[in-house]
Amino acid sequence: MPDEQHIDAEEQVPEVEAPTAEPQKGGNREAAERRRQLRETEAERDLLRGRVERMQTAEVERIVADRLTSPSDFWLSAKRDDLLTEDGDVDPAKVGAAVDSLLADRPHWAKPRIVTDFDAGARGGEVEDPPSFGEAFKRTGRASG
């Protein structure tokens, strides 16, 4: 009986036609085309990612430029990813906090504040002539005469 079951099992297996060589070539060609498209898409993605990262870096440096002598020094203590929102935009509040922390440790990196004295310069009103040599001698009582 075991032989009969074995024969029945073999009979129940449907025969599958062997694939011809032609569809395989087309499948390989299609797969190769998909791989090429994938490589091109990945290269474009990497190019765009680099461009976005450079723009984010420039935006952060623009924000810190009014507080640091050399904005590029900011990157010695900060990482770009720590300064971004969940959407990937530069967060000015995070940048400000990072600059505050940096300047607490390295105050000499701060951009010097320019104090402008608007009270200096020429004044209106009458200007007295400086005393002459003769007047100086008259005041001391040494005038010849």
Describe the fold and architecture.
This protein is mostly helical and 145 residues long. It has a domain at 29-115. 53% of the residues lie in helices and 0% in strands. It is built from four helices and no strands. The chain has helices at residues 2-12, 21-64, 92-105, 133-140. The model has no long low-confidence stretch (mean pLDDT 81).
Main attributes of the structure:
4 helices; 0% strand; mainly alpha; single chain; rod-shaped; 145 residues
Question: Helices, strands, pairings?
Answer:
Blueprint lengths: L1 H11 L8 H44 L27 H14 L27 H8 L5
Q: Give the proportion of residues in helices.
A: 40-55%
- Give the percentage of residues in beta strands: under 5%
| pLDDT averaged over residues | 81
Content-based structural category: mainly alpha
Q: Detail the poorly predicted runs.
A: none
Order of helices and strands: HHHH
Distance between the termini: 160 Å
By DSSP, the count of extended strands is: 0
Shape: rod-shaped
The major pleated sheet works out as: none
Q: Over all CA atoms, what is the radius of gyration?
A: 42 Å
Brief summary:
By secondary structure, the protein is mainly alpha-helical. It has 4 helices and no strands.
